[in-house]
Amino acid sequence: xxVTSPYKxxxxxxxxxxxxxxxxxxxxxVERFSAWHGPHHRPLLEPRYRSLIPLTAPAKGEQYAFDxxxxxxxxxxxxxxxxxxxxGLDEEETWRSVGFLExxxxxxxxxxxxxxxxxxxxxxxxxxxCPVLAYEKDDITGIVRHLDDQCMGCSYCLMTCAYEVPRYSxxxxxxxxxxxxxGRLADGEAPACVQSCPNEAIRITTVRQDALLERYRxxxxxxxxxxxxxxxxxxxxxxxxxxxxxxxxxxxxxQRTLPPQExxxxxxPHTPLAILLLLTQxxxxxxxxxxxxxxxxxLEMSLALGMLGLISGFFHLGQPxxxxxxxxxxxxxxxxxxxxxxxxxxxxxxLSLVIxxxxxxxxxxxxxxxxxxxxxxxxxxxxxWSLGATALRFYATVSLALCMGMWLVSASHLWALLAALVxxxxxxxxxxxxxxxxxxxxxxxxxxxxxxxxxxxxxxxxRLLLSSLQRVLLVRCGSALFGGMAFPAMALLTGELNVWGxxxxxxxxxxxxxxxxxxxxxxxxxxxxxxxx
Amino acid sequence: MTQELALNDAGFGLGKIPARLVPQTTVRSVCxxxxxxxxxxxxxxxxxxxxxxxxxxxxxxxGMACPxxxxxxxxxxxxxxxxxxxxxxxxxxxxxxxxWDEALRSFVGxxxxxxxxxxxxxxxxxxxxxxxxxxxxxxxxLWKFGLGALHCDSNTRQCMATSHxxxxxxxxxxxxxxxxxxxxxxxxxxFVGSNLCIAHPILWQRVLRNPHRPEIxxxxxxxxxxxxxxxxxxxLRPKSDLTLLYGIAALLxxxxxxxxxxxxxxxxxxxxxxxxxxxxxxxxxxxxTGVTATQLIRCVESIRRGKAVSFWWTMGVNxxxxxxxxxxxxxxxxxxxxxxxxxxxxxxxxxxQCNAMGSxxxxxxxxxxxxxxxxxxxxxxxxxxxxxxxxSRIPERxxxxxxxxVDGVESGKIKGLWVIATNTAHSWGGRDRVARLLQKVEFLxxxxxxxxxxxxRHADLLLPAAGWGxxxxxxxxxxxxxxxxRRVRRAPGQALSDFNxxxxxxxxxxxxxxxxxxSSPEAVFQILKRFSSGRPCDxxxxxxxxxxxxxxxxxxxxxxxxxxxxxxxRAMPLPEPAAPIPERRLFENGRFFTPDQRARFLWETPRxxxxxxxxxxxxxxxxGRGTSAQWHTNTRTEKSAVLRSLYPKEAYxxxxxxxxxxxxxxxxxxxxxxxxxxxxxxxCVATATVQPGQIFMPMHYAETxxxxxxxxxxxxxxxxxxxxxxxxxxxxxxx
Lengths: 533, 735
What we know:
Largest sheet of chain A: 3 strands, mixed
Helix content of chain B: 25-40%
Number of strands of chain A: 10
Largest interface: A-B, 88 and 97 residues
Distance between the termini of chain B: 54 Å
Shape of chain A: globular
Largest sheet of chain B: 7 strands, mixed
Strand order of the largest sheet of chain A: 8-1-9
Number of strands of chain B: 28
Oligomer: heterodimer
Number of helices of chain A: 20
């Protein structure tokens, strides 16, 4: 290879500055010094990591797993960088992260770093939730792989994974995640993180899947004991049955643990999803109203809102052209079932405009669709999105639309009273995280020793609602008051239903929009300790 | 898309790599962040570096690197690289891009006119521990011998000046005696003021590989990651280390753990030292340091029983108000127990920057090259002869130290300042004052990769520099190993290596004839060899860069004589160059570099901390490394998206949970921290790794040095960053 400088001087006179600038552009090192490294067939690091990976493939009922010795991890985070470099990830993309737990036993404080990537779960939440079958769990190795070509970028796996493992790439419009370097393992090479750990804290072992299920799912629901069997202050391992094994000679059971105090940040707003949920639920409510009172206006409104809602959903996708595949995951994914449901509901709602008798059927299907919407969020295991609370929120929204529709058509103020009641109950449920936060603050003030224990998921949500999301919460409550109480009262007093009733409906809609926005931004994701990111 | 991540065999012993990154060739280069000196195999495709992996066959890092090393190429791609020289317009006050010709004329013209008007003392250079040795030597020679200026110092004053002075006084030469194999050969390791685990993770790897189940003793006020990995942690009060170390010496003497033969044959001053430390009994140590008699006795017993005891220190010692004596208190312990010159022993300073060691030997700042003295006529004569420069060019006076230069700006004595590859406005204590002073300088030239550093923003003239990976030269690591860095990327725009900038300045200042021999880094390496000839750091046996690469770096000393002996004893002539034993330590024969070849015991009565904590400023602020992903002022490490994801973005202060409770602050809230010199606001984090009454802030955030205004060690003039009295307030109270 002939090495020449690409430098071009500005004029014909080659000055000493030109000479130096020209020399600066020559990579003399490559030409003169690279040859002697010579070719090597097997990786030079192999002797060092040979004992850190299994010699044979897993037997039936077994799978590969990350095995982390927490006491060996010094928190240098080389594993994160090496994974990035050796897998050629995008600039901002990382598949591994390192957080920490702090334990205090007596006077001795100990910071335990926790390196974490995909846990290649026995019952993977990402795979179960994926509507387009873009995940597969390898039959032999148990590695959970993401098939980038199939992904439509709905980000639902970010919610169903209890550990926030899949990362969405705006640039690519898809999600990617750790594949345990399956290509390396297949050839007897160690994954990047295993190769790069100076202290040999990460290794690959084989684990029995039934043993994992027994360990994390035999107890009744989430208990601290089950959580500690995986890792203290981590999400309930019963949700997805992670395969990673964390080891430490330091028991965490009797110790006071201080999780790091990250600033609580609002979550992704997922605005198209918020609009989709809100409008489809309004649509179902109005469909019921239309079925009950036979009002064509209600049915027209219902169809329009329903269609708008579904269209909004497309804007959520990174790869909308792959959206047609969204029904494929119906066997496991509530997302697919929601898609199929609304796919049936909208034509029925349209048909009800032609054949009014169909409205009842459409309304029934709509109610089932809302149930699928509830399940989409309830299965994520996030406390703020629990089955009860989410069902109440969503069906209350349906009821509000129903009440408003009935009130405005029938002019019976009983419906307005019912709407106010529904709104009231809803607000009480919504504000429970705020109450949890206030009780936490009180208990901290009362305590004399000042054990700064960490906040629970719901308390973090409460803190968000009281701090950075306070304004949205105020608008939510304020507009609920006007839409649910003040304006209906005015309608009652003045009898001008068109003016006050219409305003009330708009106010309630605004209030509900705030509620749905908070539903997404105030949720506190379940994460590994320290967040790390 | 799935295909994009598919892995291919890369060859070169690298294993599998994504297809688009499979290298056509690899080039070996020593990392340019810290002093560990890891070697990196840079992967080349189509004539440019695309990736890198840590070198497996290199005696330092054994195939490992910390996140900074893995991301070493990322800072080169930053969008805010300086691409052209820029000069501040006197009328508009704004900097505009100019040609190199105009920049160099302005540089030479302004400094020359300042010196003509106000004398050679009116200008100063602040340099770095981050350039190659050849560049440091060039900068120092050009500034003092070529341009005729007097004052220059570098940021190694903030990191290694203490070790330099301590070794020089005790051993007769600035000579860290150890090799990294000593981490693995000790049965007792004592770390004082060193968070090796986080600051030097690749060296901590060597500690964990120690097969002797060693006793690891960590002396640190904080329960650092290193302390957590230790078998004994002595959580002393901040800056009470000198008393503790004298207490250890007293108890060792009392327990008759002194190696009398070694002391008698190879040292001087022990009797007086023993008499001096006698009053430092365990009761006094406990009262003054907070280390209990039980802890002290257990530690001393371990040292007494140890067969190979090594003593290690870093910034916790070096950055103190009596740091030189503290370092020497550690040297004394090694000398009195005969723990030096054998595998697994030594009084060992772990260096900070990648080339602090090169700076200490060849930067021509505090002394003439290779440990020579400006005040000695003989040394000046030698330098003038070795260079072929007239003797009149070699100054007869010492330069001011960093703090004196900064004070000189304040008093108006320093009117022109040249800052190279360092970020004074962030790193020097009393940040607000420094920013004000940089405004005051009549002519400020800054040479850096980026025009956006806190210091570069103030520059009247910005000279765009090429970075690590865009130039060639050598670095010297903590264990005296000289390694090569290679040019694997083209510098962007008109950026030039520091070396090339110095060449041009030599020419523009009419010194081209004088510096004719200084034509390339490797040519200057030959000059460095001449400087070293016959000195303790003799490297005349090294042929050149190729030789260094073939041997996995070479530790000094390696003289022409060593090489000749090696060649003679080889069974048969081999085509490869002579390779010395890869891991070598000093003083194996017990002979030191003092005129009588004996090491000195040196001591002094401990002094209380100036500007200590009181009722108004009751908390003690400690500063240090935050994570392994951050480097110093974060100038380069903030350019990598991966590294950015590994540390908190905003400044924070670590406080004990009990202290927070007493203040009524919820963890995660903002607090106000005020010292006698400034105040800041930042988030607080509750952690029991700091003691109640102490708080900790990483140095990488600009806020930290708003608070510090250090005091200085009398001998090394190194600033004390490890103690600053502050008060802490909830924001509600503050406003």
